[in-house]
Specification:
- There is one protein chain.
- By secondary structure, the protein is α+β, with helices and mostly antiparallel strands.
- It folds into 2 domains: 4-143, Enolase-like, domain 1; 152-195, no CATH class.
- It is 45% helix and 17% strand.
- The chain has 8 helices and 6 strands.
- The strands form 2 sheets. Strands 1, 2, 5 and 6 form a 4-stranded antiparallel beta sheet that branches. The chain has a two-stranded antiparallel ribbon with strand order 3-4.
- The longest helix has 23 residues, at 172-194.
């Protein structure tokens, strides 16, 4: 059994790339940058939070990141810490067999529901952890994530989706049927890319 140890960076470590970005406009005709004086928010600070999900295998780590507005990334890091704590000592294969269910598991934490999960900070944290767990899944299979998804069977493809926001438009069964019908053209298209 391979278990996951999720290490969340401290707020200071999370500011891996933080830079000040006054509102700049690229003038394509002249090829130079011009500050826009009429923009309301000229004091932007863009940055991102970053998480590495470590496993018992030192060669297997998943990475996730999400851009933020830059101020108070420590709050996002705290949300990430709360979300990843739900993964501690979990078997990776149990998480990977149904990534949609894994997303639901992260999204429905009993305490997190009071401050999210469909709200800004928690939603950003969820995105970071979801990206990192999917990256970890792909790395565990020795493939880039796009290739892992392309190689999914229709059933795996359906299980990888989070159904919370689309279940009113289609069912898993309908999506599986459509995916089975679309699988052949997709394989042919990817085969052409590999050449």
């Amino acid at each position: 059994m391979q278990s996951a140890e999720f290490v969340v960076p401290t707020p200071r470590q999370a500011f891996i790339l933080t830079y000040r970005c006054p509102s700049i406009h690229c003038n394509k005709r002249r090829g130079w940058l011009t500050p826009l004086c009429h923009v309301r928010n000229t004091d932007c600070d863009y940055s991102f939070v970053y998480v590495a999900l470590f496993t018992s295998d030192p060669a297997l780590t998943g990475y996730g990141m999400m851009f933020t507005i830059g101020h108070r990334n420590d709050i996002v890091c705290t949300a990430i810490g709360q979300l990843t704590s739900r993964f501690l000592a979990k078997d990776l294969e149990e998480l990977f067999v149904d990534m949609g269910e894994t997303w639901e598991y992260l999204n429905t934490g009993p305490q997190m529901r009071w401050i999210g999960p469909k709200k800004g900070v928690v939603h950003i944290g969820l995105g970071v952890v979801d990206n990192a767990s999917r990256d970890l899944f792909a790395r565990s299979r020795g493939k880039p994530l796009w290739k892992l998804v392309v190689d999914f069977t229709p059933e795996e493809f359906v299980r990888a989706a989070a159904w919370r926001h689309i279940s009113d438009a289609t069912t898993k069964e309908e999506a599986g049927k459509k995916e089975r019908e679309a699988k052949t053209p997709r394989v042919c298209h990817i085969g052409g890319m590999a050449r």
